[in-house]
Amino acid sequence: MEAALLLTAQAIVSGILVGGVYGVLSVGLSLAFGVMRIVNFAHGELVMYGMYVGVIASRDFGIDPLWVLPLSFLLTAVVGMLQYQIVFRRFVGYATLQQLLAAIGCALVLQMVVQLIFGADARTAVSMFTGQYLLVGPLFFSQAQIVAFGIAVLATIGVELLLRSTGWGKAVRAVADDLEAAEVVGINSQYINIGAFALSTGLAGIAGTVLVTYFPTSPSTGFQLMPLIIVATTIGGLGSIGGTFLGGLFCGIVQQLTAMLWNSALQDVPLYMLLLLFIMFRPTGFFGMRSE
Amino acid sequence: MDAAMTREGGARSTGTRPIDANRWQGLAWFAIPMMIAAVLPLLPFVNDYIIAATVRALIFIALGQAWNIAAGIGGLLSLGHGVFLGIGCYTTGILFNKLGLPPWIGGWVGMLLSMAFALVMGAMTLRMRGVFFALATVAVSLAMVQIARQYVDLTGGADGLALKFIGNSLWAMQSRTPSAFLYAALVFVILYYWITRRILVSKLGLDMQAVRDDEVAAAACGVPVFRTKLIGFMLSAAMTSLAAVLYIQFYMAIDPEAAFGLTQAIQLQLPALIGGLGTAGGPVIGGAVMIFLSEVTNWGSTKIGVSGADILVYGLLLLVVVLRAPKGIVGWWWAPSRRREAVP
Q1: Domains of chain A with CATH codes
Q2: Residue A136 to chain B, least CA–CA distance (Å)
Q3: Predicted model pTM
Q4: Full set of structural domains in chain B with CATH
Q5: CA-CA distance, B230 to B238, in Å (whole number)?
Q6: How many Å lie between the alpha carbon of B115 and the closest alpha carbon of chain A?
């Protein structure tokens, strides 16, 4: 009994730590959907790009991945801008099936470019916190996960502040609310959209670089993370930043509980079932915007 | 043009004729490559490699034709058709390996299982709108990957399931040479082509197209929207699952990623997307183009020693099709004549 309780507590604690990173992984997707109604199926690939930035920094230059966070933000933001200019520009405002297919095409291309350059095998990166552990009472904490959680929370708060209290953020929210009315009062929605999309993919890059300090990466990691990102976003609410972050936390807790109390090989199955139930009964999630 | 107005087509499908309703012309375009494929083993310069590549193309054409029923005619962009491919393959394989039942029986069992699965899955997901339906089918499919990895005793786990090879045998549908599969695959493709053409002009097909084009308007005209979607989805699942028999007998093995993975789901869609959604000829052209390009890139990339170039080509193809030719090769090729026909 005592042991089971301890296991549950441990699962919840690591669930929260992992879930924070899932949250920041998903915030970008939610932002792109909220502002432009774009479901960027290649979001996971941009996370993977962020992870490879961390790997290269750590392996080839011996720099701690945490110091190159701004660099990976810039790189993935630029990739995102290209993606927007080439593909998503013409789909703004409608989450259509064509748009989803185009995003899947992007995902395949981005993934295979990495595989052709770096090969298909898994790689790891080492930060100063990797492999360090902390014991608090009977509970067990990975330092890399704590740091990742902290950065995830900071990044999410940063985005929320950016959207709430800067002029640019106001413009983004205006475009999200009503594109035509925003244009009427003199906002150039193309600039706003490309900026918001770059922010969304840049966040993916940051999340990836943080994640790689305790999770190995390979070209297929993007496809592995994508379902989780979709679940977190749908449960939290597409388009809501805070809601999506909480959705990520929730996913982390459910996943860790499943892994520790039931079966770690089936850790994502309950999440997929939850996704189905949410799409059936509450497609706006807990905090999402009203459905179309 | 006149031929399009034959007995079945003309009366029921006034106004909204599918692109290749020009029946006899389309049939001729279909028959010529099929005849060439049929005499392929007799030609002097053809070796087993070319025949195997043709079989691969035909298998993906058949799978694409099955997906086309749901996605092209019914507008249900399922990213989870790997589920039915997987159920077909695993059922056939497990029944053969464990119980010695031949695929002649296992295939039908797999088909029934797939239809039951499609019924449950469809009942849960078919009321959702476009993108949400697609995401929900992804979730089901990826859950199946983990489930198939977990139950090692039954499925062989992540390593996959290999069929026991017993030599040339019609009873077990096994053959050392690919020529036998060539004819089996041809039968599938011709049968599925015929089914697609029949459906396009049938009551069910017209209902499906009406639902695809405008759900609200279709419902207002008395089309039972949900039931039509469900029947279309189950039909497509059954066809995918039957074609899966061919898949497993030809490849002799299946693993969770190859059955339920995202990359496979995308390969199932590409033939119809490249060739032209909702047309009978589309998946045939698209599948041939897809496999041809992937063989060429694989040949080229093994020369320089890299892997995955074919997936890169698939991604680029998908982007080009979606951005430049949303109606696929068929829609692009027949576009001018279609504009002429559009005049009532």
Answers
A1: 2-281 (1.10.3470)
A2: 33
A3: 0.86
A4: 3-261 (1.10.3470)
A5: 12
A6: 19
